[in-house]
Design brief:
One of its GO terms (molecular function) is peptide transmembrane transporter activity. Keywords: Signal, Transport. The chain is an alpha+beta fold. About 25% of the residues lie in helices and about 20% in strands. α5 (about 115-120) packs antiparallel against α6 and α6 (about 140-150) packs antiparallel against α7 (about 155-170). The two termini are about 40 Å apart. About 50% of the residues are buried.
Length: about 625
């Protein structure tokens, strides 16, 4: 399938130009070899140097191990590599906010709906902070494919996903590596209902049934343990460097709808009314891709400070996420989080205190994701529009107080409210007794008065805390190395949830050498994903070729993973390799890069080496 129908001539021209002179200043040998060499000899050249940005092992053991393997493989093919290990907050600030990186290794946390492709890659987001196109990928032709996907009715989405994945395999703005298994440890002697909902969402901690021995009352406290201390430091739902899964934000803040994914791996889950009592969808007459949604809020909804929650707060939230300066700043200041979701919303109008009308420019499946944004109290957040002057945001013009404040104490409307915290040690929440769920039959409710969370340094410590009956659940998924440490009993068991994470290598396409798709294509083939699954994740993951995993609902068979560790990765020269990784077959076997083949791939892509085996770049 030609991903650019009607544009074949343009594609050939573009490929010819890039093959003849690699974009971003790398020295090319394709085309007129002698002429290129004379330029190199005259201008001089030096070895290409790159920095891989990631986090240390006490934050994410898998990321740093992948980075080290990648460094070794890059050095083997003549590239000088440095690993820059940053504290987790600084890592996300530098990559997602300041865009100051060459390439990075890390996880993406979020649902696996195809709409994430629009959020990750749409050109208009390239200069915005957050997970909205952190790679700086820009292509008007690709944007047309993303817009077709973004605006298509539900029944047409699989066809448009296939078109996007075709081009994604060529462009490689980032390299999906694997989807880790999402395992937690739970105590079944104190609560039941762990399997009802996903434990990365608010619903996972609502509706649990407390259990108690015959001679004692059931517990009135849910005890969690995390290995990530950031929820004890910052509870700002808009701060991208402190938020990954957003579990605690979802307990503190309500959204119009809530996702419920307790099904198959990779599914994003259905969206059900939550703060919304109901919604009605109606296609706008004469508008092919626009739908009007009339939303009715639950009666007597209120924030934790007693102020009523009205349709005005909802309308404010969607305007605020789009521009946290509310039009008062020198430039628009979109939120680093949720911006991609609200991009589907064309307009929001409050009709009365409980009713609002939203215009959605996507099909229903994609549009429902826009209803999962946390609703902010206007009387608090409207005062946070001033431009921030915080260290680390100097390169982000227009950043406002709204995205840098720690937001402690948080005032939301969710089923639990903030009590206190000890930074990097504990977080204490208690049930919000005025929450609407307590008066509505059929909705999961906060069944205990208190939800306390303690911080453990690593998964091994978290396992011990649960096994010794000092916690009921590891809210953070277990790291792969620790899973074999678990001793399951009648009271303690491993809980598996559909994974909402994929590990990847992200490229900064704003600067050389990653401006060149040919460089990215060869780079992507220097990692044996199946080998990483076995060596880094100890088998508790599955290799993937797309950010949507192998979901049969969306991913064509041609892009689903097809092999086992160490098989079929010996390269397409012998007709092998396609079975395992259809997007970027490994240039080697069993984790060992074939240096001669990798060098030949770079040379065929237009780059050259010196006599010492160093890949060259112009000074």
């Amino acid at each position: 399938m030609d991903p650019y129908p009607g544009d074949a001539e343009r594609r050939v021209d573009r490929r010819t130009v890039l093959a003849g002179l690699a974009a971003g200043g790398l020295t090319a040998t394709s085309g007129c070899v002698r002429q290129t060499r004379s330029v190199v000899n005259r201008d001089g050249a030096e070895q290409l140097s790159l920095t891989i940005t990631t986090v240390p092992s006490d934050v994410d053991r898998e990321s740093i191990r992948i980075a080290r393997i990648l460094r070794n493989n890059l050095e083997a093919v003549g590239i000088d590599v440095t690993i820059d290990m940053l504290a987790v907050e600084e890592f996300y600030r530098e990559t997602l906010v300041n865009h100051d990186f060459d390439c990075y290794v890390g996880p993406y946390h979020g649902d696996m709906d195809p709409e994430l492709l629009y959020e990750l890659l749409y050109s208009a987001f390239a200069d915005e902070p957050g997970w909205q196109n952190p790679f700086g990928f820009t292509s008007l032709t690709f944007d047309e494919l993303l817009e077709d996907l973004h605006e298509s009715p539900d029944e047409d989405r699989p066809e448009h996903v296939a078109d996007v994945l075709d081009v994604l395999a060529d462009e490689q703005p980032f390299v999906p590596l694997c989807v880790p298994e999402e395992l937690r440890l739970v105590r079944t002697d104190r609560f039941e209902g762990w399997d009802d909902h996903h434990l990365a969402t608010r619903l996972g901690y609502l509706g649990l049934e407390p259990l108690g021995p015959d001679d004692a009352d059931p517990p009135n406290e849910l005890r969690g343990v995390v290995t990530d201390p950031r929820p004890t430091e910052n509870l700002n739902p808009l701060s991208v460097e402190y938020r990954e899964r957003g579990t605690y934000v979802d307990l503190l803040y309500d959204s119009l709808g809530t996702a419920d994914n307790d099904g198959d791996e990779g599914e994003s889950g259905d969206i059900y009314p939550w703060l919304a009592e109901s919604w009605e969808w109606e296609d706008r007459t004469g508008a092919e891709s626009t739908t009007d949604v009339t939303v009715t809020l639950r009666p007597e909804a209120s924030f934790h400070d007693g102020e009523p929650l009205t349709a005005d707060d909802v309308a404010f939230t969607y305007r605020f996420v789009e521009d946290t300066s509310l039009g008062e700043g020198p430039v628009a200041a979109p939120s680093p989080r949720y911006r991609g979701k609200v991009a589907a919303v064309e307009s929001v109008e409050a009709l009365d205190d409980r009713t609002l009308e939203m215009s959605i420019e996507t099909g229903r499946q994609a549009g429902e994701r826009a209803l999962t944004v946390p609703i902010l109290p206007e009387h608090i957040w409207a005062e946070r529009t001033d431009e921030a002057s915080v260290f680390g945001f100097a390169r982000r013009p227009g950043a406002t107080d709204a995205v840098v404040l720690d937001n402690v104490p948080p005032i939301g409307s969710g089923p639990y409210q903030f009590v206190d915290r000890s930074e990097r040690e504990r977080l204490h929440l208690e049930r919000f007794d005025e929450h609407f769920s307590l008066g509505v039959d059929g909705l999961p409710q906060p069944t205990v008065e208190r939800f306390t969370t303690r911080v453990a340094p690593r998964s091994a410590s978290a396992i011990e805390i649960v096994e010794e009956n000092d916690a009921d659940v590891t809210v953070s998924p277990l790291e792969s190395y620790s899973i074999e440490m678990v001793s399951e009993t009648e009271s303690v068991r491993l809980h598996r949830s559909p994974s909402q994470t994929f590990y990847h290598v992200g490229f900064n396409l704003r600067q050389a050498p990653f401006t060149s798709p040919y460089f990215r294509q060869v780079f992507a083939r220097l990692l044996d994903k199946a080998h990483l699954v076995e060596e880094v994740f100890e088998g508790y993951a599955r290799p993937v070729a797309t950010p949507l995993g192998d979901d049969e609902a969306w991913v064509p068979e041609a892009y689903r993973w097809g092999g086992e560790t160490g098989t079929g990765s010996e390269g397409e020269d012998e007709g092998e390799g396609e079975a395992d990784d259809p997007s970027a077959p490994f240039l080697g076997s069993a984790g060992d890069v074939d240096v001669s083949r990798a060098r030949r791939a770079f040379e065929e892509a237009g780059y050259r080496y010196d006599d010492r085996g160093s890949l060259l770049v112009r000074q």
